[in-house]
Amino acid sequence: MNLYSLLDSSAILANLKVKDKTELLNKIIDLLRPLVSDEQLEDIRQAVIQRENIMSTGVGKNLAIPHGKVASIEQNYAGFATLKEPVDFDSIDGKPVTMVFLLVGPEKKNNTHIKLLSRISRLMNSTSFRETLMQCETPDEIYEVFHQEELRYFGN
Fold it and tell me: Is 113 part of the annotated catalytic residue set?
């Protein structure tokens, strides 16, 4: 499964301005509102925040990958945002976050969830890719950069 097929321009924000980690998590989760029911959205919010409370998903290199597994959904959903100004995220390297990639999936498909998290991590490990994403001004530009990088990196 490729990441760009999970992403949709409607679930991408460019130059998002937020004051803190809580607002950031809520804004990126709210991107999924058109794709799921209100109940599912709250299940997603609860799962992501619970996971975040266990340990920060700020993975370093100015990136956070908040994620969670939810019983009430049947497929994977993703959201992505670049931030106008860095936000403290309790990251493992102590640096603030400028990009966030949200991934949520069905509780029953743990293997797929882990594979997608791994794919996100590998793709986002590229410094030039992260720099290109930060230069994008629109969700469509971000989507296209993901598409092209994934084709280049994974070949599909």
Answer: no
Q: How confident is the model at residue 8 (pLDDT cuts 50, 70, 90)?
A: confident
Contact 142, 12 (CB under 8 A): yes
Selecting among 21, 45, 67, 69, the annotated active-site residue is 67
pLDDT digits (tens, 9 = 90+) for 99-115: 999 999 999 887 888 88
pLDDT value of position 4: 75
Out of 3.40.930.10, 3.40.50.300, 3.40.50.1820, 3.30.70.120, select the CATH number for domain 3-154.
3.40.930.10
Entry pTM: 0.94
Q: Are 80 and 11 in contact (CB under 8 A)?
A: yes
